[in-house]
């Protein structure tokens, strides 16, 4: 049996509760001094002070003694419930107070009743044609989320990319909401990569040029060397003092390689610097691939060759069997973009590797393979550029200059010829510029 009582404000002042300042909504702090008061009476008094309706089960018994200063009414009720092992259930504006085991028993009864009702409901078949995501992938997500009932099952039709669900209506409604929220077009990212081989001078100076040099000077110098006319030079952005606003975080490691992040406003300047680099003979753009990748999906590109390696293995009762195996010696680039929730920036996982044959270290005529790799993850502005370096290419050339005919005479030819050794060192720089494609 459940009883409901309301305690008037008159009894509120009879020594049970003293309020320093009472607001109309009961939000003002209270000072409480209860001495051996019935728990139900204390709960009624606090609810009456707050203007709230309350129902207290008859099983709630016992007395409580407490002294509190400067607490809200809801905090006082919560402290009483914790001290007496009680639970509160709010239905609309009505508070229902009961023992903890009673409330758990009621929840268990409601759950069992719901299970019995579900057992009487016949399953239905629903078809969910998917437009943007594979049906098999959505099915896997549903299985991991355990949205099906005990009677539920799923079937995928790869041809029409349709997911068929056989389940009770209540579970079918949940699955429908899940499918509608999941089957949305994935955002795409256009990734422009420029792979550059440049000398040490260019790799050391690029970051400082864009960070410290004046924008008009860079644009004029690059446009002149690349054959641009003054009125054809692309626009650029600058601060009011004329300094470049394109660099976000230039980093110059002590060993000389460059690693930097540039804002989207520096894209034109970077392109002009690369054109000037090629015009001055400081380097060359080896490759300029463009990759289109979905959000959180990996895209890759690879360029190179395969080196044959002869292999022989013993065979029982006969001579060795020869075969040829191939090993890649290529330049590969792998990127995985992750778009930020605000779509203003994105994270990119970058994996760059360069494998090149080394004919100076060969075994049985097969060269060894030198492997160099960079793997990193960066956060970059949409349309910005990240520059990675640190992969060096060392080359040594033996040159011989001689006078025709005289330089080929044995012994005396040394007087008419000269030999020089030239060492060159280039750095492989990778410029990566991601651009989020608008859904429109």
TrEMBL record:
Broad class of where this protein is predominantly found: membrane
Gene Ontology biological process terms from the UniProt entry: establishment of competence for transformation; protein secretion
Keyword Transmembrane helix: no
Gene3D superfamilies: 3.30.1370.120, 3.30.1370.130
Signal peptide limits: 1-23
Recorded GO CC terms: cell outer membrane
Span of domain Type II/III secretion system secretin-like: 276-437
Domain NolW-like: 125-188
Keywords: Cell outer membrane, Competence, Membrane, Signal, Transport
UniProt-listed InterPro entries: GspD/PilQ, NolW-like, NolW-like_sf, Pilus_4_PilQ, T2SS/T3SS_dom, T2SS_GspD_CS, Type_IV_pilus_biogenesis
Compartments (UniProt record): Cell outer membrane
Subunit text: Homododecamer. Tetramer of trimer.
Protein family membership: Belongs to the bacterial secretin family. PilQ subfamily.
Role noted for this protein: Required for type IV pilus biogenesis and competence. Could function as a pore for exit of the pilus but also as a channel for entry of heme and antimicrobial agents and uptake of transforming DNA.
Protein's name in the database: Type IV pilus biogenesis and competence protein PilQ
The organism's taxonomic lineage, starting at the top: Bacteria, Pseudomonadati, Pseudomonadota, Betaproteobacteria, Neisseriales
């Amino acid at each position: 049996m459940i009883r409901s009582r309301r305690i008037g404000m008159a009894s509120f002042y009879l020594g049970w509760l003293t309020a320093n300042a009472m607001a109309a909504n009961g939000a003002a702090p209270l000072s409480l001094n209860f001495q051996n008061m019935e728990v139900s009476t204390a709960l009624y008094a606090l609810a009456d002070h707050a203007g709230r309706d309350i129902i207290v089960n008859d099983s709630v018994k016992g007395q409580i003694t407490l002294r509190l200063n400067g607490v809200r009414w809801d905090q006082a009720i919560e402290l009483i419930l914790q001290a007496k092992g009680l639970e509160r259930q709010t239905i609309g504006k009505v508070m229902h107070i009961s023992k903890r085991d009673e409330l758990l028993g009621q929840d268990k009864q409601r759950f069992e009743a719901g299970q019995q009702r579900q057992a009487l409901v016949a399953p239905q078949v629903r078809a969910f044609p998917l437009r943007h995501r594979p049906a098999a992938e959505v099915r896997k997500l549903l299985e991991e989320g355990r949205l099906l009932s005990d009677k539920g099952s799923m079937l995928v039709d790869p041809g029409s990319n349709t997911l068929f669900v056989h389940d009770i209506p209540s579970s079918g409604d949940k699955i429908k909401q899940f499918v509608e929220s999941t089957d949305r077009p994935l955002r795409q990212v256009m990734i422009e990569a420029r792979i550059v081989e440049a000398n040490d001078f260019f790799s050391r100076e690029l970051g400082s040029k864009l960070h410290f040099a004046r924008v008009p000077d860079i644009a004029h110098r690059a446009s002149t060397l690349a054959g641009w006319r003054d009125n054809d030079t692309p626009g650029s952005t600058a601060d009011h003092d004329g300094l470049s606003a394109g660099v976000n975080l230039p980093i110059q490691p002590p060993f000389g390689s460059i690693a930097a992040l540039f804002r989207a406003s520096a894209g034109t300047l970077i392109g002009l610097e690369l054109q000037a680099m090629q015009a001055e003979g400081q380097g060359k753009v080896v490759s300029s691939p463009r990759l289109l990748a979905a959000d959180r999906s990996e895209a890759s590109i690879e360029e190179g060759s395969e080196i044959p390696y002869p292999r022989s293995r013993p065979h029982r009762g006969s001579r060795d069997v020869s075969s040829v195996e191939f090993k890649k010696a290529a330049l590969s680039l792998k990127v995985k973009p992750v778009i930020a929730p605000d779509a203003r920036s994105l994270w990119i996982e970058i994996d760059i590797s360069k494998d090149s044959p080394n004919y100076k270290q060969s075994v049985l005529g097969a060269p060894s393979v030198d492997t160099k790799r960079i793997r990193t993850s960066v956060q970059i502005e949409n349309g910005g550029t990240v520059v990675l370096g640190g992969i060096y290419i060392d080359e040594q050339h033996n040159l011989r200059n001689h006078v025709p005919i005289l330089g080929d005479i044995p012994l005396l030819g040394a007087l008419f010829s000269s030999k020089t050794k030239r060492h060159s060192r280039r750095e492989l720089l990778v410029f990566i510029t991601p651009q989020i494609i608008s859904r429109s």
